[in-house]
Amino acid sequence: MGVRISWWGMSRVVSALGGLGVVSGTGLEVVYPRLLQDGDRDGHVRRAFGELARRQPNLASPLRKLLSKYYIEGGRRPGEPYKPVPICRLTRVDGFQGADSFWELSGEMQVLVLAANFAEVWLAKEGHSKPVGINFLRKVERPLPWALYGAMLAGADYVLTGAGSPDELPGMIEKLSRHEPAAMSLKIFGARSDSGGFYALARPQSLNTGGAALPSPKFIAIVSSFGLAKELAGKPSTRPYGFIVEGSEAGGHSASPAKASFDGGGRRTLVYTEKDQADIAAIAGLGLPFWLAGAYASHVRLRSALSMGAAGIQFGTLAALSAQSGLAPWLKSKVLKLLAGGKLEISNLMVSPTGFPFKVAQVPGTISDEAVYLARERRCDIGLLQVNYLKPGGELGYRCPAEPVAAFIAKGGRAQNTEGRVCLCNALLAAAGLAQSRPDGYVEPPIVTLGEDLDSAKDLVAKLPAGQETYSIVQALKLLRKSA
User: Fold this and answer.
1) Cystine design at 179: which of 87, 104, 204, 306 (Cβ 3.0–4.6 Å)?
2) Residue 434 belongs to domain spanning
């Protein structure tokens, strides 16, 4: 669901109506400062931060500093750039334990990451007693330990994690529930195999937080193969509560197909076959609850999923195009018009800095438009998808294939990895209505990611009364539950 498309407002409705509302935990440490700079018009951010300060009094002062830094009463002037948020970079922690290498965020970013994730979950849970979940990307690793802790302080009932093996999450949840230090391994390019492990660390005591033990959320691993599901289920230390099994039709990032194809011009194309589909019967045989995702957003496919032993389905595209999603209204309108006219196309492209396939809706005026892509100056000023590499002096460096090519190469990257890469950080924030304005007046263009299955959304749009552009998330839920 990208950045803030599945936000607390929509997720609260889904949970209150008996589904599991899941908020996106991606980039909230950038989203919340931008909401504050836009004036926090309904006061939700300040109210949530106030609740966090009430529960954890030692955070009151650093939270006031964050508000002083980012809050603008009445919001930014039109065209005024957002104040930049520091990139989540790490500093070595000396003498923590053993021969491994531990790294942590700056004090300011610890508080910001924690507070933003607390706020998103707390607001989604407000006003009802139904469960709420939060979704993290394993590959956005540097802020993840503190993001998880913030969500747990707010009482998250479920934690969903994919985009890499999430085998360390159960142990992290257990430790953070007791306000103990928790670490997650970092992938470091250039590190020697005999140099010990590298870990991103969250130490609640560094912020003087604590109190009674926290309820441990149920952990759901997002997988696309039986092999990973079996591996995770095989040990108590990595076993999740259940799985979300994502097919290649799902939006956002996908696992690469087993075999690449090439067109007549020698360009790599992505073709998925039955060999790339997860063995659902085998996953069911593991005995853990599972949900199916990717082209299951209809009452017919829901019944099919239930018949295969699934506990239910995950639906993203149908929710993303609903009136309550966080997709910018002007952009949603453009996408829905293309959908209603049968002209909305979804491409599986190698645009992501991660090197994994990424679903992109072909929408004029967005970064999917080649002219828009070519007109954008390359920059990396948010850094969620940067990878870590080891500098000659032993410090961590950060590089991204979507940054300026010369800078990427100077950091040891390969030029071929920069071809066609898109700054998803800026583009996904723009899709949520939080586009950065540059001092020269340039506004960052958005990108829209949707799954390949558009049938249910198209059916709902076709049945709307004249003058109504989209459907509600309530209508989407009713459609899915029809005769289920």
Assistant:
1) 204
2) 327-453
* Whole-number pLDDT of residue 1: 62
Q: What per-residue confidence (pLDDT) applies to 280?
A: 94
Instruction: Record the pTM.
Output: 0.94
**Is 266 inside any structural domain?**
no
Number of domains in the chain: 1
In whole angstroms, what is the distance from residue 292 CA to residue 273 CA?
A: 18
CA 484 to chain centre: 29
Closest CA to 35 of 3, 2, 13, 1: 3
Assigned domain for 351 exists: yes
**Chain segment 405-416, per-residue pLDDT in tens:** 999 999 999 999
Banded model confidence at residue 99, pLDDT cuts 50, 70, 90: low
User: Number of C-alpha atoms within 13 angstroms, CB side, residue 335?
Assistant: 29
Nearest to 45 by CA among 28, 32, 56, 60: 32
Strand order in the sheet with 396-399: 188-189, 387-390, 396-399
**Considering the domain boundaries, does residue 353 fall inside one?**
yes
